[in-house]
Write a structure and sequence with these properties.
By secondary structure, the protein is an alpha/beta fold. It contains 23 helices and 17 strands. 46% of the residues lie in helices and 14% in strands. Helix 5 packs antiparallel against helix 6, helix 10 crosses helix 21 and helix 14 packs across helix 15. It starts with 7 loop residues before the first strand and ends in a 16-residue tail after the last helix. The C terminus is likely disordered. It binds phosphoenolpyruvate and magnesium ion. The site of magnesium ion (MG) has 5 residues, from helix 18.
Length: 590
């Protein structure tokens, strides 16, 4: 626990944009151990019935949460609960538990607890990171069913909460789906990842969240003041009055910009000295497109498509994908929509792929590398993307590219998809643009070659920072070392921007860095043509660009490239941020 009165600063990973300032509400969702009781031979039937009943009720509850989520957020968001509903019918779960009841004569609660423990261990061993998300679903189910079998009250009753920042070891989708953003203003957890289902829901619900804080749960107590900055991943427990005020002012300014957006946008983000910077949105789900447009996005700079694959038992069909892609394209009929092909591996493993366990998944089969192993999956996706090209300026983006050979192989697959559609007489745009994501130092250093083989480049700063600094972006113990302002980063970005300029193609940047004011200044100043940010950040970054001079940003970026360290670099970026308070950002802003 932090010392009373003294502020504690913690670094985690940004999971949902926005700033929350509120009172800690700790949520502990561990279930107590089931009592160690055996049951009489004749009572087995009763325990089996109790299990059936608990599973039935759990299913009904989940269906209800799913229905409410669908009404509140949309169909795709609601599907987040499908894996849990399936788990309640999964023979691995159900038959395994029944066997324990019958063979070991234990209560339904004890048998279910054992089986859950066993599955947790089994899944945690087999393929590591993605399973974290599946495990998170499993824990959610465990809590629900065991809670019922043990007759526990819901640990998540937040009726009395006001402006609460939920602090937990981890959260679950069903918990987050029930939150009222009026009562729960932010989320902070010890573990978890940006890709977790509950984090996706938090983004859709516009609740700021930071994950991977390590020990925020043990450091806090109910009622403490806490700041959660979901854009930078920074959390302050017990901030001093001055610091709290600074965040509060900042929060007020951001909400002011957001409220004013409908009148001011979609005017382009043009600097005071008349340089245009295209601002696009990053989307995780198709339903977010409308909100992004309302907030002034000039298209979509990154549409992550993994939501269609992760947590599914079968690969997504072409029609479902086509609907998702064309819905986004139709929301932006005259702007670019950059659809990234499934970026699987790393921390995202769909169940249906049965990818082998790897010692180092982030250095393993990931991104474009998976295309070679799963051509069928990607052929279907490319057919769906190609079909969506008739609805707008849809482009295809390829993650984790290192070599031109990888791009050539990808283009071959795209060619095969085109040939199929042509043969079937299905319309599509033959001139669809293909871009490489620059996410490794190797790709940045070979940007000239990759640019020659691409129609555009997009810098994935999250991965670029991870690989440049050799800091695992999901390792909660290393969050403080994950520094987008290490001097190596602008030097790599500068090379990519230069390669794009020489080749005459657009260079964009997506990833959390572009959503931080200093990051946006750096990227724009280095000559990145288009910034793509988490959509809630659009008003702030639009406002920043409009209140700055490109000349200042370029000067600051040049100084950043020559900076001797992170602190020096951040100082170099301060000047363009010191505009009038409602145009640029005050240099005193957090
Ligand atoms: C990135 O790496 O910066 C990026 C935008 O992609 P993701 O975060 O999905 O890996
Ligand atoms: Mg990436």
């Amino acid at each position: 626990m932090s010392s009373p009165g003294l502020p504690t600063h913690l670094d985690g990973f940004p999971a949902s944009d926005g700033i929350a300032l509120g009172r800690v509400r700790r949520v502990d969702w561990r279930v107590p151990e089931a009592p160690r009781a055996t049951v009489r031979r004749g009572a087995r039937r009763r325990e089996l019935d109790r299990l059936e009943e608990a599973l039935r009720r759990a299913r009904a509850e989940l269906e209800e949460i799913k229905g409410r989520t669908e009404a509140r957020l949309g169909t795709v968001e609601a599907r987040i609960f499908d894996p849990q509903i399936l788990m309640l019918e999964d023979p691995e779960v159900v038959e395994g538990t029944k066997r324990y009841i019958s063979e070991n004569r234990v209560t339904a609660a004890r048998a279910f607890e054992w089986r859950m423990l066993e599955l947790t261990e089994l899944w945690a061993r087999t393929s590591h990171t993605m399973v974290l998300d599946r495990l998170n679903d499993l824990h959610d189910v465990k809590l629900r069913v065991l809670g019922r079998l043990l007759g526990l009250p819901s640990p998540w009753d937040l009726e009395d909460a006001v402006d609460a920042v939920i602090v937990a070891r981890d959260l679950t989708p069903s918990f987050v789906a029930r939150l009222d953003p009026e009562r729960a203003s932010g989320l902070a957890t010890d573990t978890g990842s940006r890709a977790a289902h509950w984090a996706i829901l938090a983004r859709s619900m516009e609740i700021p969240a930071v994950v991977g804080l390590g020990d925020v749960f043990d450091r806090t107590r109910d009622g403490q003041t806490i700041i959660v900055d979901g854009r930078s991943g920074h959390v302050v427990i017990d901030p001093g009055e001055v610091e709290a005020q600074r965040f509060e002012q900042r929060r007020t300014r951001i909400s002011g910009w957001t409220r004013r957006v409908p009148e001011g946008v979609p005017a382009a983000a043009v600097t005071l000295d008349d340089a245009a910077v295209t601002l696009r949105a990053n989307l995780d789900l198709p339903g977010e497109a409308r909100r992004a447009r309302e907030l002034g996005a000039q298209g979509v700079g990154l549409f992550r498509t993994e939501f269609l694959a992760v947590g599914r038992r079968a690969g997504p069909g072409e029609e479902e994908q086509y609907r998702a892609y064309s819905a986004v394209a139709e929301t932006f009929p005259s702007d670019a929509v950059l659809i990234r092909i499934f970026d699987l591996g790393g921390d995202k493993f769909p169940l249906f792929l049965r990818m082998p366990a790897e010692g180092n998944p982030f250095l393993g089969r990931r991104g474009v590398r998976v295309c070679r192993d799963e051509p069928g999956l990607f052929l279907t996706q490319l057919r769906a993307i190609l079909r969506a090209t008739v609805h707008g300026d849809v482009r295809v983006m390829v993650p984790l590219v290192n070599t031109t050979e990888e791009l050539a192989a990808f283009r071959e697959l795209l060619g095969a998809a085109k040939e199929q559609l042509q043969g079937e007489g299905v319309p599509f745009r033959d001139d669809v643009k293909v871009g490489a994501m620059i996410e490794t130092p190797a790709a940045a250093l070979a940007a000239a070659e990759l640019a020659a083989a691409s129609d555009f480049l997009s810098i994935g700063t999250n991965d670029l920072v991870q690989y440049a600094l050799a800091v695992d972006r999901t390792n909660t113990g290393l969050a403080h070392l994950f520094d987008p302002f290490h001097p190596a980063v602008p030097r790599l970005v500068a090379q990519v921007a230069e390669a794009g300029r020489s080749a005459g193609i657009e260079v964009s940047a997506c990833g959390e860095m572009a959503a931080q004011p200093a990051g946006a200044v750096l990227l724009a100043g280095l000559g990145v043509d288009s910034l793509s940010v988490a959509w809630p950040s659009l008003p702030e970054i639009t406002n920043l660009i409009r209140g700055s001079r490109m000349r200042d940003m370029c000067e600051a970026a040049a100084a950043a490239v020559g900076a001797s360290g992170s602190a020096d670099l951040r100082r170099a970026l301060e000047r363009p941020l010191a505009g009038p308070p409602d145009q640029g950002l005050s240099s005193r802003d957090p």
